[in-house]
Each structure stands twice: as C-alpha cells, then as structure tokens.
C-alpha cells in the first residue's frame, strides 16, 4: 500500500472513530439493549458451494475462515438421506480410492476437520440425515440420524416428557458434529457434561474390503470398546448414520446469577462446580468480577416457566453488526484501550441487566439448556434471520481459544492469569467484549479422545483482524494466557475450536491415543477419512506449525523470530511476562 493510501486509511478510521466514540456511552447502551430483537437478512449460508451441480466444490465453516485462511476444495458432494445412501457413497469412494470427509449443515467447527485432502476428495453432507427416528418413552432413549440438530432432539424428547440432561449451550450443532468434537455443557455430576457420555448405541459406516462390498455398517453398543473410539472420533473412522441416546424424565431447573468480586475465584472454583449440577462461571478479569451461575434441578411443581434465549445467539440486523465491528476495528487500530474497555463494560452491564436472556429463574430443562434463535424457530422456517458471526456481512470475526485444565491445577492457572491482569488489566477488555472467560465444568470421559480428568474448560473469544498480518491490541497478553493454559498446565484443547498452536503435541496428552489409532486403522486402513491436517494434529506428519512472516499473529506458530510477529508494526518476539517459557508477540512499548 502506498503511503498516501495509508494516510487515507488512517484518516478514515479516525473519522469513523470520532463519529462513533464522540457519542459514547448512550448509543452503545441503546444498541446493545436491542441486540438481537430484530429480524435480519437471511438464513445461514450453506458451508458447501459448488460451481456445477454438486461437483467442483469448496467448503468452509460458519465463519467462512479456517485458522490458516486456506480454501478447502472437493471434487464432489453427496447428500444421503438414509443409511443405504451412505453405504453406496462410501463403497464407491473406497472402490475408487477417494478421500472422504463428513460435513454438516452449519459447520461450526473452527479447525479444518471437514477438509478432504487435495482437490479430488468427496464430501458427504449430513444435511438431509435430519430425522428423529424414534423416541422410546419406555426405554427412555432417542434414536436419531447424525444430521439432526441438538434443538430437534431437545424438542422431540420434551414432547415425550423426556430430556437429554447435559448439552452444549448452542442448539445449532448436529448430533454427529457434537460427537465428532466432544462438545459439552457444564457439569461435574453423574457422567459429566459431554453428550457422548449419553450414547448407548451408534451405527457407523466405514470402508471395507471388496468381499464385504467396499463399505460396512458397524453397530456399536456400550459393551463394545470400539464405542470409546467412535463417540469422539473427529470424523476419522467413517460416517455416523444413527445415534441412540439415553434420556431422563423431563425436569425443571432454577438459575440464579450471582456477581461477586473475583478476589477468591481460584479458591471457590472447584467447590462451586461440585455443589451445583449445572454450574458455570463467567469471569471478567479487568472488571474483577466473577458471575456464578447457581443452577440446579428443582421439583417439577416449582412455579416458573422461564425460557433462556441467550442474547448473543439472537438474530441481529446487519446494520448493528456492521457498526459494532467497525467500532471494534477502530479502537483496535488506534490502540484505544480505554475505548475498548468502555465498550466491554457497557456490553457486560447490559447482559447482566437482562440476565443474559433468561426470562424467569425457573423453567423446564428443554427451555433453558440451549438456545440459538438466530437460526430460526424451525428447521424449515422461511423467516429470515442472521447470526452475529454471519460472514456475508461485516459482523463478528474472532479467534476462539478453549482448553480444559485439571481440577488439581486450575487454582494455579487462575493465579497466573491474575498476575497478567495485574500487569496489564486493560488487555482483558477485548475478551470482555465477547462476554469474558466462560468457565464450564467437564468430567473425565470414557472416550479415548475425551477429557482425561475432571476439570474446568476455559472458553476465550477475542478480536481477529481481517488482515492476517495486522497485530492485535495487547496481542502478547492473550497469547501468554493461551500458552500458559496449553503448555504450562497441559490444557486439553476443545476439538471444535482453537488455533493451530493449541494442537501442538496434543496426542501426547491422551493416555488412550494408541487405542483410538488401533480402531482407526481397523476401520479405515487406507486412511480415506484422514487428511494432511489430521495427520499433522496426530503427529504423523510435519507441518502443523506453519513458519512464515506473521505466523504467530494467527496462532499458526509460536514465535521464535521477530518476523513471526510484525516487526515493521512494532511487534517483536519476546519471552512471557509471567510464564517465561512462553514466546509471544509483544508491542515495542510493552
């Protein structure tokens, strides 16, 4: 870019900044109060696009950007509606040596699990595998196809007076996607918060030798150890066709949000999770606040019919999203930490005031456990909606770092983060703009690639520049939090979130990784469901860490040289401030 063009860009940003920030804080309060109360432009775009009928295709995620910003291609996409269709596709691919990947309707995973290797692979979409096949009230089970959304399961189970007890908070996930990435809610009780712990039977289609027709259906029950591989499989074993889930009688819950100073958060975190069945905590480090979700079952006759329509998951007008994103870009570009902190405080105050979207503190489980109204009230709805991160407009664009820390060391992790807060409190305002650090409780899992021990999952969302070589305000602090969690305390990354750096050496953290690989080799010996990316994550190939100019800015590498940061923009590779083994991109003024 020429210097005159730079000047014009800066000048425009300053004018935008003034036009927005000179009106603070009332307009943002007004804006955020009405966030999500309008019908917007259109339903989410299909992540698969083909240049001709189901051939010559590209696939992305719901954010339209993978961590390395590559475009994934496929020769062809198939849309099965039943198990026999899957068998035919997998058999044909196996016969022809075609690489395959399973895709979902909304594709919410950030990493590249859906990308086939090369340009000639096949995609198998579960978009039309969307039927709840049976709710057995006597056995208290639900049998569903793998493309069914969490919302469908919750609603159909409730009609029969039943409930899926523990789920993620976002209902736009498919059941196959949930199992693929080990998605979870929050609980240390019972079997824990992961949906895959409720699986009692699973049907999966895998490649097979010629004498078995090149494809085979495996029926896995709780007595079969292979289920421990299949119920968190990253899509590497085959195509899940049907899932049978164990349900419970429908119940009511009571939720109360209690806001306290975070001075003793590290001492309360374990006991709080053990005391309340559906507990979670939202931490706002710069504001020194911790919001404790006191969430438990109550007798079914308890008064209350509350609904939890989480505000950030509501449909939002494009104009609001564009204004918010422009403001975020301007405060980051101009280094206005005060402006970012003001926006964060305004946003969190509004969310707290509106109880995050909860209409009553008591309600039936199916009305409280998950939400996502920006996707529409019905899978076949014609009502136009727009999720805040919809890539077709200038809306939210972010990184997500999510990892679980064992209960035995979670206190130490929080103490280390607090040391960083003490050094640079404003560095955490960017996180607070995205509703702080969400802390959910997870339990050790029987799945080979599930959680290895009881712990706390830290979910951190923060600004991402549209320009991959533009550093973020306080880039170094958030990178250090990431490296403290992942490396110092051995945090397990959430399989459906995170940047490349979180998966460095990840398979060494799973005591049953070899058992998973054994089942993988048995079901897919020709590696037709594997890709270069999955081999890199599993440590079978080099290349997970991408060394190039600016790679550390996007979490594609851990910096070891200044050029991995942005030296021309004043960001250099430096050791951590609290965790000295960390290598972070720090601004020259840090």
Automatic annotation (TrEMBL):
User: Do you know which Pfam families this protein is assigned to?
Assistant: ALO, FAD_binding_4, GULLO2-like_3rd
Recite the UniProt keywords alphabetically: Ascorbate biosynthesis, FAD, Flavoprotein, Membrane, Oxidoreductase, Signal, Transmembrane, Transmembrane helix
Q: Which cofactor does it need?
A: FAD
Pathway membership? Cofactor biosynthesis; L-ascorbate biosynthesis
Q: Would you kindly state one Gene Ontology biological process term found in this protein's UniProt entry?
A: L-ascorbic acid biosynthetic process
Q: Which InterPro entries match?
A: ALO_C, FAD-bd_PCMH, FAD-bd_PCMH-like_sf, FAD-bd_PCMH_sub2, FAD-linked_Oxidoreductases_BP, FAD_lactone_oxidase-like, GULLO2-like_C, GULO_Plant
A single GO molecular-function term is:
FAD binding
FAD-binding PCMH-type domain location, by residue?
Answer: 70-250
Q: Which reaction does it catalyse?
A: L-gulono-1,4-lactone + O2 = L-ascorbate + H2O2 + H(+)
Broadest EC class assigned to this enzyme: oxidoreductase
Give the residue spans that cross the bilayer: 21-41
For this protein, the Enzyme Commission number is: 1.1.3.8
The entry's cellular-component GO terms read: membrane
Q: List the PANTHER family hit by this protein, alphabetically.
A: GULONOLACTONE OXIDASE (PTHR13878), L-GULONOLACTONE OXIDASE 5 (PTHR13878:SF67)
Q: Which family does it belong to?
A: Belongs to the oxygen-dependent FAD-linked oxidoreductase family.
Protein name as annotated: L-gulonolactone oxidase
Q: Which organism is it from?
A: Vigna unguiculata (Cowpea)
């Amino acid at each position: 870019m020429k210097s005159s063009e730079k000047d014009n860009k800066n000048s425009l940003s300053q004018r935008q900044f003034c036009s927005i920030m000179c009106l603070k804080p009332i307009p943002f309060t007004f804006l955020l109060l009405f966030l999500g109360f309008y019908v917007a432009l259109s339903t989410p775009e299909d992540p698969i696009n083909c240049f001709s009928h189901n051939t010559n295709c590209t696939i992305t995620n719901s954010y339209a950007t993978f961590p390395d910003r590559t475009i994934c291609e496929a020769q062809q996409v198939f849309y099965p509606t039943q198990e026999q269709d899957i068998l035919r596709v997998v058999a044909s691919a196996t016969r022809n040596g075609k690489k395959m990947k399973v895709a979902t309707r909304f594709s919410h995973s950030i990493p590249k699990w859906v990308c086939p290797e090369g340009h000639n692979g096949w995609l198998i979409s579960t978009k039309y595998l969307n039927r709840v096949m049976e709710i057995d009230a006597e056995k208290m089970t639900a049998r569903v196809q793998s493309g069914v959304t969490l919302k469908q399961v919750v609603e159909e189970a409730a009609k029969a007076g039943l409930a899926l007890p523990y789920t993620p908070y976002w209902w736009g996930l498919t059941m196959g996607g949930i199992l693929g990435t080990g998605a979870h809610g929050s609980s240390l009780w019972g079997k824990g918060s992961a949906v895959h712990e409720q699986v009692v039977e699973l049907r999966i289609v895998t490649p097979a030798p010629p004498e078995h027709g090149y494809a085979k259906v495996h029926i896995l029950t709780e007595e079969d150890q292979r289920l421990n591989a299949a119920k968190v499989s990253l899509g590497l074993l085959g195509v899940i066709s049907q899932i049978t889930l164990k349900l419970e009688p429908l119940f009511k819950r009571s939720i109360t949000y209690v806001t306290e100073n975070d001075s003793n958060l590290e001492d309360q975190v374990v006991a709080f999770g053990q005391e309340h069945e559906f507990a979670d905590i939202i931490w706002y480090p710069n504001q020194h606040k911790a919001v404790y979700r006191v969430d438990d079952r109550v007798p079914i006759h308890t008064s209350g019919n509350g609904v939890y329509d989480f505000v950030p998951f509501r449909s939002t007008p494009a104009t609001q999203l564009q204004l918010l994103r422009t403001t975020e870009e301007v405060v980051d570009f101009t280094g206005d930490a005060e402006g970012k902190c003001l926006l964060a405080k305004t946003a969190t105050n509004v969310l707290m005031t509106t109880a995050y979207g909860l209409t009553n503190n008591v309600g039936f489980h199916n009305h409280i456990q998950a939400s996502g109204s920006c996707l529409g009230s019905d899978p076949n709805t014609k009502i136009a909606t727009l999720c805040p991160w919809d890539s077709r407009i200038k809306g939210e664009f972010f990184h997500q770092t999510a990892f679980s820390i064992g209960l035995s060391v979670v206190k130490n992790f929080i103490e280390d983060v607090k040391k960083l807060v003490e050094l640079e409190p404003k560095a955490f305002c960017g996180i607070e703009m995205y509703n702080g650090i969400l802390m959910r409780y997870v339990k050790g899992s029987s799945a080979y690639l599930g959680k290895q021990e009881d712990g706390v999952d830290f979910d951190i969302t923060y600004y991402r520049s549209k320009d991959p070589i533009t550093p973020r305000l306080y880039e170094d602090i958030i990178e250090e939090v990431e490296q403290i969690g992942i490396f110092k305390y051995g945090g397990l990354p959430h399989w459906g979130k995170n940047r490349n750096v979180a998966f460095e050496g990840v398979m060494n953290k799973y005591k049953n990784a070899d058992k998973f690989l054994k089942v993988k080799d048995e079901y897919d010996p020709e590696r037709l469901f594997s890709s270069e990316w999955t081999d890199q994550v599993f440590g079978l190939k080099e290349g997970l860490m991408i060394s190039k100019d600016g790679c550390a800015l996007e979490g594609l590498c851990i910096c070891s040289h200044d050029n991995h940061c942005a030296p021309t923009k004043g960001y250099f590779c430096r050791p951590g401030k609290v965790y000295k083994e960390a290598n972070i991109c720090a601004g020259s003024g840090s």
